Amino acid sequence: MDDQYFMKQALAEARKAFDAGEVPIGAVVVLNGRIIGRGYNQVEMLNDCTAHAEMIALTAAFNTLSSKYLMDATLYVTVEPCLMCAGALYWSKIGRIVYAAPDDKNSYRRATGATSPFHPKTKLEEGPGKEESLTLMKSFFSSRRK
């Protein structure tokens, strides 16, 4: 199992969001080759602006480990995290973040510029799944504009 495999799992979560009428973003948290947290956007369903995929996956991972830190874990997320999720990821001390598609409009970079809001030891990487993630996002938003 590698980045490709785990990003496919995050994309499966994104498709759940799409099918539920939510912005199609999905995330999984992986530790030692095992998924310990999953999430997809549930903002509309829960009427909660903080119910982003990353937040839900982090909460599931914290509960799985009975710990608030994820130093040896990796988050796979279909779209680059927003500033709120970046803050949560900072406090989790997550070891690695792999995202499929950049988000120039809503990512943490819009507020922070070149400054990284992540923990100094966190590695941030663009990974596989970019085209599928962008296709899901474009399809979702184009269906809303009709």
Automatic annotation (TrEMBL):
Q: Which GO terms describe its molecular function?
A: tRNA-specific adenosine-34 deaminase activity; zinc ion binding
What's in the keyword line of the UniProt record?
Hydrolase, Metal-binding, tRNA processing, Zinc
The UniProt regions of compositional bias labelled Basic and acidic residues, in chain numbering, are: 122-133
Q: Which family does it belong to?
A: Belongs to the cytidine and deoxycytidylate deaminase family. ADAT2 subfamily.
Which residues are named in the active-site annotation?
A: 54
Cofactor entry: Zn(2+)
Gene3D superfamilies (UniProt xref): Cytidine Deaminase, domain 2
Under the heading HAMAP family, the entry gives: tRNA_aden_deaminase
Q: What class of enzyme is it?
A: hydrolase
One Pfam family per UniProt: dCMP_cyt_deam_1
E.C. number(s) listed in UniProt: 3.5.4.33
Stored PANTHER family? CYTOSINE DEAMINASE FAMILY MEMBER, TRNA-SPECIFIC ADENOSINE DEAMINASE
* Region of interest (Disordered), ranges: 108-133
Any one of the GO BP annotations: tRNA wobble adenosine to inosine editing
- Copy out the cofactor comment: Binds 1 zinc ion per subunit.
Quote the catalytic activity from the record.
adenosine(34) in tRNA + H2O + H(+) = inosine(34) in tRNA + NH4(+)
Sites where the protein binds Zn(2+): 52, 82, 85
This chain is encoded by the gene named tadA
User: Which top-level group of life is the source organism from?
Assistant: Bacteria
Q: What does this protein do, in the record's words?
A: Catalyzes the deamination of adenosine to inosine at the wobble position 34 of tRNA(Arg2).
The molecule here is called: tRNA-specific adenosine deaminase
- Indicate the segments forming the CMP/dCMP-type deaminase domain, all copies: 1-111
Under the subunit heading, UniProt states: Homodimer.
